[in-house]
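ENCODED BACKBONE
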Amino acid sequence: MNTVARLRSGKRSPSGTRKPIAGQSRLASVSRGRAAPGKATEREDAPEDSRFPADLRYHREHMWVREDGTVGLTFYAQEQLGEIVFLEVRDPGSRIRAGEVLGSLESIKAVSDLHSPVCGTVAEVNGKALEAPELLNLDPYGAGWIARLELQDPAELEGLLSAAEYRDLVCGG
């Protein structure tokens, strides 16, 4: 397995380690007390269409991908995890298969692996998100993107969930 990039600022993760935090927990096991399991919570400041952008494809492990290979964490996932305080991502040049660990994050509630929604090569990592992981909470579909992948097979996107299918998955529709 390729190495995981470390936060360049030298900050320690909240758990006090500088070790990679991948593999310790799964996002699916995280739930926020406000919502029934499998149900998305509603936020007045986030209209439904902004929580499930139609131009993205979604992975069941709560990651999204754009046609250009940009990937990130869904609004639903960041809301369930709470405040994200630490992020690690594989180094550029790392090859990854769909479902493999692209990186990991630490929130105030859990440590979670980030599973790649598609196969490809890491072309770029969002350094701003590494330095300020709260961007994943503040703007999960914009400034809070995680990495850009050079897609191995762009047709693979068709096998992912549409916005409506992902909304049904997390809202129990």
Strands lie at 4-5, 57-59, 63-65, 70-73, 84-90, 95-96, 101-107, 111-115, 120-125, 147-151. The two ends are 37 Å apart (CA to CA). The longest strand covers residues 84-90. Helices lie at 48-51, 75-81, 127-131, 135-138, 163-171.
